[in-house]
Structures are given as structure tokens and as C-alpha cells.
Specification:
165 residues; single chain; 2 domains; three-stranded antiparallel β-sheet; 48% helix; disordered N terminus; mainly alpha; two-stranded antiparallel sheet; 4 helices
């Protein structure tokens, strides 16, 4: 299990590690130049990370289409693998095995991401939240919500575990 970079503070003042799954909120700019706090279920495909991580595709529909496109590639690589096994060509067999694994995993990951985005879109719609555009670190989010207290969560170490206190 990987621990989050930041540390929350306990009541005794000792630092404690916070797992990413235990974060109450993730922060991002919406399309209207306002910052919002999203729960894990509302994040979906989420906003882009300043570090360049996260999904390149931000639409559930496009993610679904890309997953469907990968299915023929998975079938073709499986045919290549079977042909290589029959002909006992080891190089092509290894290539076919690697490609089959990669192309078979792509639709699974794509369908799962698209399903999670559709669930998150539904959750965001219930609260009236826009789609997250660019994610924000805890320090910047804490400062924004300090300046705009009506806009977000209570400013506590539990809500901003990666912020420097």
C-alpha cells in the first residue's frame, strides 16, 4: 500500500500518514474560474494534474470509444499468438503474448474508467458541481477557501492533509 506524500496532524500534534483513499476531498478548478471540493466518487476521470499525470481522455464517451477500438487489436494479437505457438516461433510468440496482454487490458481499463466517469457525472449533477478541469494542491486550495469561506469545506488538517500547517 502506498502512502500519500503529505501528512495530516493528530490531536497530539504528531504527524500521521494519510492514504489517498482516506482523503475527504480533492480540489480542482471548475470551468467558471471557481475552485471546488470533490469527493472521491465525484472526481471521475478528474482534472488534469499540473505534473502531467492522470487520464489524457477526459470524456467518458471518448474513453468508451477508445476501449471498443482496442478490442480488434486484442483479437488480432491473440491470432498472432496462436499462429506463433503453432509454428513454434519463439520471438513472435513472446511478441504476441505481450501484445495480447496489453491490448486485452486496454478495453478493461477503458470500460472501467468510462463507467466510473458516468457514475461521477451523476454524483456531480446531484450536487450541481461542474467537471473538474485542473487539479489543485492542498496549499493553494486551503488559501482559496480561506479567502472564500462560503465556497468550500471547513479548513481543518483532515480536509487538507497535504497542506503545510
Amino acid at each position: 500500500m502506498t502512502l500519500n506524500h503529505g501528512r495530516g496532524r493528530t490531536t497530539s500534534g504528531k504527524p500521521e500518514f494519510v492514504l489517498p483513499s482516506e482523503r475527504p476531498y480533492y480540489y480542482a478548478w471548475g470551468g467558471d474560474n471557481r475552485m471546488y471540493a470533490y469527493t472521491r466518487g465525484e472526481w471521475g476521470l478528474g482534472g488534469s494534474l499540473p505534473s502531467g499525470g492522470n487520464y489524457t481522455v477526459r470524456s467518458g464517451t471518448v474513453q468508451f470509444i477508445l476501449a471498443i477500438i482496442m478490442i480488434p487489436a486484442a483479437v488480432l494479437s491473440l491470432v498472432v499468438l496462436i499462429a506463433a505457438v503453432v509454428s513454434l516461433n519463439w520471438i513472435v510468440m513472446i511478441f504476441g503474448l505481450v501484445c495480447t496482454a496489453l491490448f486485452a487490458a486496454a478495453p478493461y481499463i477503458g470500460f472501467k474508467a468510462a463507467r466510473n466517469e458516468w457514475k461521477a457525472r451523476k454524483a456531480r449533477r446531484l450536487k450541481g458541481l461542474p467537471k473538474p478541469r485542473t487539479s489543485v494542491g492542498d496549499d493553494e486550495a486551503r488559501q482559496y477557501f480561506f479567502d472564500h469561506p462560503e465556497a468550500g469545506p471547513e479548513i481543518t488538517p483532515e480536509n487538507f492533509p497535504d497542506a503545510k500547517w
